[in-house]
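Subject: Sanity check before I submit

Could someone independently write out the structure tokens for this chain? I want to compare against mine line by line before I put it in a report. The sequence has 661 residues.
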Amino acid sequence: MHGTVEWLPGSPLGNTGYSWSDVLLGSLPNLYVYAANNPSESILAKRRGYGVLVSHNVPPYGRADLYKELAALKDLIAEYREDPAKNDVMREGICKKIVDAGIDADCPFAEAKKLGIEFTPENARMFSAHAFLDYLVELYDYLLVLENRLFSSGLHVLGEAPHAEAIASYLNAYFGDQISEVAIAAIAQGHNTADALDAFHAQFRQEHPGSKLRIDPQLPERLEEASAIRDLLSRTTDELTNLLRGLNGEYIPPAPGGDLLRDGPGVLPTGRNIHALDPYRMPSAAAYERGRQIAQQLIQQHLQEHNGSYPETIAVMLWGLDAIKTKGESLGILLELVGAEPVKEGTGRIVRYELKPLAELGRPRIDVLANLSGIFRDSFVNIIELLDDLFQRAADADEPEDQNFIRKHALSLKTQGVENPSARLFSNPSGEFGSLVNDRVTDSSWESGDELGDTWRSRNSFSYGRNEKGKSRPEIMNTLLKSTGRIVQQIDSVEYGLTDIQEYYANTGALKKAAEQEQGQNVTASFIESFSKDTTPRKLEELLRMEYRTKLLNPKWANAMAAQGSGGAYEISQRMTALIGWGGTANFQEGWVYDQAADTYALDSEMAEKLCKANPEAFRNIVGRMLEANGRGFWHPDAEKLKELRALYDVADEELEGVSV
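---
Independent answer below. Compare away.
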């Protein structure tokens, strides 16, 4: 939850008696409850609003699994693969299931796409059994990815310790397949390590009678760690205990903020006064190396997709949230693109980002449009100054323009008489936050996606550096947008992805739209799920499809949210608004998402009644966004479905207005 004082005007690095937070708070203590996995925004409350933080846990993690057509499709493919020749009669039925589920949008049939042939059950016979089987193998692997993706199951109740089933969910997500589910269940139910091992042995004997069991020597150690995590999770009650202590003027113990999956059990128990990291040591050694690997993958992907041509500019989103949680991986990405590395003094503090020689780099220096969130801008002034110095030196380097795109663009800007042509760090006006794109989408106060791109541009053309604290430089911004070949951003949490909060489409999606306005062509946006060991960049459209299938359209996720009452209904509502936002900024307008969302939340009478009763305003928004999508041409349902949705909207509207017929 957010307060107000941390977002009001004032000094970004320390309050004065004239700062709004000082004027409003005075000597009043500010107890601030915030998610343990979001240290960046909570630290803002500490710096600007004197917040004494009391962290709270995130909801238990669930695995998406497969449902409806997806589950049936997996079974059909598995059966077909047992004997493709014998089961060839299943081909048309499998293709129909693929089309009905819309899964060919996620995983297209390459052979058909290459020939420009539409994928339909009728056309499936045009391809060889070998080509079709290869496609089904690829599709089956993709279904396994969907089945095993994680999401947050429901909402967290402050101070409520998780029950055994929820503890098992946390542990399964943390350990993956390193511990069997039966051993995890034993630990979650309160048994010790020996009992968990016994349960594992019993399961093995039952499933593999007469076979000899070879135990991973690390298993006992992992079970001990699982027991420790269980005990820490049981102390979630500290959230309320320490909140009351703080209100009583007592001491609240400190702890690092972070995520269990990424940062380990040190972030537990919750209910503590969280802190972040030393900004003078960003990026950390590990974050720099991971960032380098990600940047190299991005460049390779671009080369493969553009006939060996390097991108001249890549837009890198620098958000305070992911920078703190990953210890600066996004900075590592930026430095590798430019061809630079951190230089430390004797104390370990980073004092300079040094350019590597071109001969060592082995490729051109990529220019970077760095888009800073308001929190990054205000929290990491030292890093902004180091980056500004880096870009200045890169622009001045005596290197060929075709090997240094920063210099190439800076020289072009300089010949146009533009001041500070090496400016590359852009954000909102000083003291202000947000692109306002999400406000326009929420209020439905826009006609075309171009308006959203223009709004983002008008809010993000302000330059920051050693000598600039929010200088409007639209001419540099527009030049960089014209040469932006790719956009990259990290997603740092299972809990909040592209489809969950408005800020992703309002910033990354709208930047994409602004770049496409300048170029008149599609610009690829790539995302890295930094909570995962897999750092492969995924394209925006691919990740949106995966998220919608595993969250919004997934009955497990839907039922978990609906069970939370008003808050859960609100969360569903927010995701329908975000769906409209992605349609406006990134042209993501795939009808199957709206079709299945309508069936899940509006046309299922039991679900609709539950949501409307819990939160009629949220339910009206859910249905209203579906009608808005139709009005904007994003979705074309049949007339009967549209009629039902309009009737449901009227019922919700009457409920809110207190009208009874």
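---
OP: Matches mine. For the report I'm noting this point. The CA atoms of residues 60 and 166 lie 6 Å apart.
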